[in-house]
Amino acid sequence: MAPLITRREIFPIAAAADWVPTSPPPLLDVPVQLVVDAKAKLHPRRIADFWSHIWPEAVRDLGRCGIRLGTNRKDGEVSHLDLLREPIILGLDRAALNVVVTDRVPTQWDHGRALSGVTTRYRGHHLCMIALNRAHGHQIPFFSINTCIHELLHALLHDIFESRPRGFLGEAREFRIDLCATRLWLFHDGAGIRQSTRTYVERLRADSA
Fold this sequence. Notes:
6 strands
């Protein structure tokens, strides 16, 4: 006679029958060109902190939601001509999201706000500029987020395709980015970022063509 199975034993068996191991989603590659400004006045300690802490932290956080930054490093230059003209930036790639590491954000884009970074489209290129003298890693959830993650998300979440709103709407957009970055940092929650990134890569390819 077969042994009887109690009700308590049935539920784990049923759950095991329905459970199917799931593999992580395939990696979504984002082409990135890291451009290091040869003219920037940077302390060696700041440069070392960028390569050992700030940038790896951004790569790690995005990697947790299946986004891989296909990084190519290149030397370039940022020339600040005067206060009324855009800088001249050398070393950019139209087919990549360019992350320019320099010492300060140009006055034309900074508007006296002492920014640690800015994301924009520059002469047909997609550009995140990191002012390394002010950049930092994760510090305070929702308020002081890794500078690279913050600027990258402005691109991946499509803010790069719009002008920054003024006033409250502009501040709301910044908080939205820091909210997404915090959820990615603390809870590894990046499903929405991944979905938006797929569309961003398609638009980047279209722009480069």
